[in-house]
Specification:
Layout (H helix, E strand, L loop, with lengths): L2 H27 L4 H29 L1
Helix pairs in contact: 1-2
């Protein structure tokens, strides 16, 4: 793992967390619509995909 991959995955996780929050609020405001449900589902996938390389790069640079 290198530093660039860790930075890109941190940015991806950051954006995915805010899109998840936005989709959850959108689903709450629009009475549980499909856009809010599907958006929160897909953004949670990107949270998981960005979190794993982010933590791996942080662990490598701590050593």
């Amino acid at each position: 793992m290198n530093k660039k991959l860790g930075m890109y995955s941190s940015i991806m996780t950051f954006v995915a967390v805010f899109s998840f929050a936005f989709c959850m609020l959108l689903g709450l405001i629009l009475n549980n619509d499909a856009i809010g449900n599907n958006g929160s589902y897909y953004s949670s996938i990107f949270i998981a995909l960005g979190f794993v390389p982010m933590i791996c790069s942080y662990i490598i640079f701590l050593q």
